[in-house]
Amino acid sequence: MADETVGVVGAGIVGLATAREIALRRPGTQVVVFEKEQEVSRHQTGHNSGVVHAGIYYTPGSLKADLCVRGVSLLREYCRDRQLPYDEIGKLVVAVREDELGRMENLYQRARNNHVPELRRISRAEIKELEPHVGGIAALHSPRTAITDYPAIARAFAQDVVDAGGEVRLGFPVTSITTVPGGVEVACGADRVRVDRLILCAGLQSDTVARLAQDGPEPRIIPFRGEYMLLRPDRAHLVRGLVYPVPDPRYPFLGVHFTPRVDGSVEVGPNAVLALAKEGYRRSRVSPRDLLALAAYPGAWRMAAQHWRTGIKEYRGSFSRAAFMKDAELYVPGVGVRDVVRGGAGVRAQALDRDGTLVDDFRVHRVGRITAVRNAPSPAATASMAIAEHITSAVFDDA
Ligand SMILES: Cc1cc2nc3c(=O)[nH]c(=O)nc-3n(C[C@H](O)[C@H](O)[C@H](O)COP(=O)(O)OP(=O)(O)OC[C@H]3O[C@@H](n4cnc5c(N)ncnc54)[C@H](O)[C@@H]3O)c2cc1C
């Protein structure tokens, strides 16, 4: 007999890391993961850039900053133990205009506060030594930034859960969550499972699933599609490591960048366009239900009023390859439409408060027997093992 049963909704990397952490930290606890798809990591975890972020961007003292830095060391060790891909190819954050130098300096100070290892400011000549095809007037170099294979890590976490006596129930879309005396009942149609505690890690659906659990309606999730181009194989030599712009601090996304993947391909992107469906991987996918929910939310209109200019620019890049590559060309002069083919896309779950603020930090809260992850955007894949520690401590009050 298990001492206690804990349910986790969502078999993305956050849900699986959490299920694994509980199964290992609390032997005797039976863990069950409920996943609506037929395989793990079908959504954000399976459509991301595969970067292990070093912690450069995040507000010092925030959960993002602390859990990212801790997450990197846990993930590096895990990948080493399991012989999963983990390649420290390094990253440049490149300034191409004089007016970006101040922002780059702020980023450097922020990264130092976050204890990002071995970060250096480098000159135009040093950029050329590291990346002969990259242009720029100065850069930050983070040699320890890595790439990995998040779906492979998620599968390994799922296996750890099963090996520890837990269960990953695929094809189980949770349709109702009811608090019952001494526990919580999770149902998929007529199939009902009673657990002692429940953790919600539903990514793009985290607001919908939280509502099933009678948690507050806010923040809502706004889906931002990120579309990629792929460098043609004979042009993949144009970058050796990761090449990023200096980000706009008003915006939670990092800007179109060059991302080598563990399979040897190189992606350019992702952009950030408002998707017309939460799981809208293609432009043509429209969900009237998601769209109505968005239109009825005052926060969405307030966000649109603040960010419409950026929104139009991103849409232009979505429809026109030439417009998309214009940004990329600032970093690799001469790279253009003929060097790329269209790649895949991912959809980011970005939480939005009622006042139109894009929620920056991770947001996790617990009410009684239910703990809900309400915002886990990038770098949540990097930070997943540390987020799992954080959630486990919150669930069992043993921080
Ligand atoms: C384009 C893009 C690029 C990114 N790049 C990076 C990067 O380079 N590095 C990084 O660290 N992070 C990156 N991220 C962010 C990272 O991928 C996410 O933060 C992370 O994957 C979130 O994991 P998750 O488990 O919360 O969500 P998900 O992976 O989306 O998983 C949620 C799961 O919940 C399931 N679910 C939903 N509703 C139900 C229900 N009712 N019943 C049962 N199951 C349900 C879904 O099917 C899904 O499997 C990127 C994200 C995107 C989209």
From TrEMBL:
<keyword id="KW-0285">Flavoprotein</keyword>
<dbReference type="InterPro" id="IPR006076">
    <property type="entry name" value="FAD-dep_OxRdtase"/>
</dbReference>
<protein>
    <submittedName>
        <fullName>Hydroxyglutarate oxidase</fullName>
    </submittedName>
</protein>
<dbReference type="GO" id="GO:0047545">
    <property type="term" value="F:(S)-2-hydroxyglutarate dehydrogenase activity"/>
</dbReference>
<dbReference type="Pfam" id="PF01266">
    <property type="entry name" value="DAO"/>
</dbReference>
<comment type="similarity">
    <text>Belongs to the L2HGDH family.</text>
</comment>
<dbReference type="InterPro" id="IPR036188">
    <property type="entry name" value="FAD/NAD-bd_sf"/>
</dbReference>
<keyword id="KW-0274">FAD</keyword>
<feature type="domain" description="FAD dependent oxidoreductase">
    <location>
        <begin position="6"/>
        <end position="392"/>
    </location>
</feature>
<keyword id="KW-0560">Oxidoreductase</keyword>
